[in-house]
Amino acid sequence: MNKNKLSIAVILSCSLLASQAVNADSPSCCSPFTSKVSQGSANMVTGFIEIPKNIINISHDQNIFVGITWGTLRGVIHAASRTVIGAVELISSPIATEELIAPAYVWQRFSEDSRYFDLNLPGYWISYGPFDNGQ
Fold first, then answer.
1. Per-residue model confidence (pLDDT) at position 5
2. Do residues 89 and 45 touch, judged by C-beta distance below 8 A?
3. Which residues contact 50 (CB under 8 A, 6 or more apart)?
4. 115-116 and 101-102 as β-strands: parallel, antiparallel, unpaired?
5. Which member of 3, 81, 104, 106 has the lowest number of beta carbons within 10 Å of its beta carbon?
6. What are the domain boundaries of the chain?
7. How many Å is the maximal CA-CA distance in the chain?
8. Residue 28: per-residue pLDDT
9. What is the rounded (10 degree) CA torsion for 104, 88, 53, 125?
10. So what's the pLDDT on residue 62?
11. Nearest to 41, CA basis, from 20, 18, 73, 7
12. In angstroms, rounded to a whole number, what is the distance separating the alpha carbons of residues 84 and 44?
């Protein structure tokens, strides 16, 4: 019973910390902190969505067989990377840093490949969107 209460308390405190400011015109001193906490916690929890994302994107670009094989492999690698980077963002949330992963959340620009540390990685079946100066 105590574990349930503790997990509910952790979830509620994370949701309170991750809430964004309502008025976007007046930047808050805590805005970078709360955005890093929300990005970190969301990426840790939803990193596994990279697997179907890569299967869908590669299947759309090539065919279903390549999507299932290569997309699954790339999805597992991206899922692990997004989860680890989410943990790093959550731990380093008090420190102001550059964006570690683009797009910030897995569901943003779903047809675009994930990019880490603002690097355009060379490779086959990698597509970057026009929003992040991708190539």
1. 72
2. no
3. 75, 76, 78, 79, 82, 106, 114
4. antiparallel
5. 3
6. 30-132
7. 52
8. 57
9. 90
10. 85
11. 18
12. 7
CA distances from 46 to 7, 76, 77, 97, 122 (A): 18, 12, 14, 22, 25
What is the per-residue pLDDT for 19? 56
Provide the 10 A C-beta neighbour count for residue 46: 16
- SS3 track for 32-75: HHHHHHHHHHHHHHHHHHHHHHHHHHHHHHCCHHHHHHHHHHHH
Tokens of 55: 């299967």
Residues of the chain short of pLDDT 50, as ranges, are 23, 125, 132-135
pLDDT of 135 reads: 41
Dihedral, CA of residue 55, residue 58, residue 62 and residue 66, to nearest 10: -50
- Single-letter residue type at 130: P
Q: How far apart are CA 66 and CA 110, in angstroms?
A: 19
Sign of the CA dihedral running 112, 117, 118, 119:
negative
pLDDT score at 48: 92
Spatial distance between the Cα atoms of 130 and 116, rounded to a whole number of angstroms: 16
